Structure formats: structure tokens, C-alpha cells
Amino acid sequence: MARDWIEKIYLQALDFPIIRDILLAPAWMPVQIMNAIIAFTWAVYIWETYLSYRQHKMYKNTKSIPPELAGVIDQTTFNKSRLYNLDKSKFNLICSLYDQLFQTAVLVFGGIPFLWSLSGRATGYFGYGREHEVSIFFIFKS
């Protein structure tokens, strides 16, 4: 039953030319995979930045103690906490932008293949060949 339902959906999806081209293509090319990874990481970054910005606005606009915390915390402690979280939020927004730009640059300019090659040369220096992928991986990872 589930198989019939999946086949029905699949066949209906083939009616759309764009989806048909994607589903019936032999495989994705490496450039397409890299572009998809970059697009996905930017989509995640934009979503997380949107959520962080909303939280930043809450820190900025909430100047009095919420009723739920009225008996738990005093105004001075609340202000210190709010200002700390506001500064932390600004710093996080800047750091996340830097991280995203750096990650994109590494992908676009071939940083990963370069570091893998460098790791392979390092294993050769220590007496191992390029066929020792595990050794190369540990050097690459560290």
C-alpha cells in the first residue's frame, strides 16, 4: 500500500519538467553538489540569523522585569543580565557572519582539497604513502 502511494506521488512529480530533469538525471555533478551545499549552508545561516535578530530585539526592547520574574529577580540584576545578553547577541551576529563567509570561501576557493593534499604530503614525510587514508584523515582533522 505504501509502495503504491509512493509510486503514485513519484509519477505525478514526473509531470513537472524541472522535477523530471532532476529525478531522471544520471547523477549530480561535483559543481552542482558544491553549489547545493553552499546554498543550503547560506539558507541555514539566514534562518539562524533571523532567529538571533528576533532575540536581539527582545533583549533591546524589554527594559522592565516580565511579570513571570517579578519576585525572582531585582531590576538591577535584570538590567545587567539584559545588557550582557545584548552585547553577547551583537558579538554572536558578527562571529556567525565571519564564520559563514570563511566557510563559503573555503568551499569556493578549494580549501578542503588543498588541506587534504597537504595532509597527504605530511603523511609522506612521516614515512606513510598516500594510500593510508586514515592517517591522512587524522592529520587533516587536526
Automatic annotation (TrEMBL):
Residue stretches making up the CAAX prenyl protease 1 N-terminal domain: 55-139
UniProt keyword annotations, A-Z: Hydrolase, Membrane, Protease, Transmembrane, Transmembrane helix
GO MF assignments: peptidase activity
Pfam families referenced in this protein's UniProt entry, alphabetically: Peptidase_M48_N (PF16491)
InterPro entries: Peptidase_M48_N
Gene Ontology biological-process annotations: proteolysis
Transmembrane portions of the chain: 33-53
Keyword Secreted set for record: no
Name recorded for this polypeptide: CAAX prenyl protease 1 homolog
Originating species: Trichonephila inaurata madagascariensis
